Amino acid sequence: IPHLLTPVTGEADKVLSALRWGRVEMEHRFRDFQKADCRDITSYNNSTTSPIEHILFVVTRSDAYISYATMEMSDAIKQLTSLGARAGIHMIVTVDLYTPRMIPTEIQANFPTIISFANTRTGTAKPYDSEVLLPDELVYKNNSTNALQKLQAPLVTEEEIRIIVNDLKNK
Fold it and tell me: Is the pLDDT at 100 greater than 70, yes or no?
């Protein structure tokens, strides 16, 4: 995929290396913002002739990686989630099955939203252990209200995805 900064990887040491790079890039951007007398990526891009791009980290199955190099991995995720958005560095972190204890509190506090889909084996999603979720349902937690909601998720079939992809390729 041409727009990826790094190849997709499933190796914990490479994930950690990418997160380290993200921290260094974030610090570099903050130095550039300071020189330009700007507070964030939006004001920086509005004041320069060479704007910088946003970066998105997608860390899937983070529960498997957090157990590897626990402190360094947690610190990297914590820094990127707490300060990264101002620098145009964003993060999506997924886990196999969300439980509040799975992700450290300091990291959870920096995610504006947590979404948990039903576990396909048990049909439950923490913290709805006693309640069965259907395959098209999810648990949504917005940190601004800290309330849990059970929502209906849209179902998108493979055929619909194929039609959309083909349409985008033809444009």
Answer: no
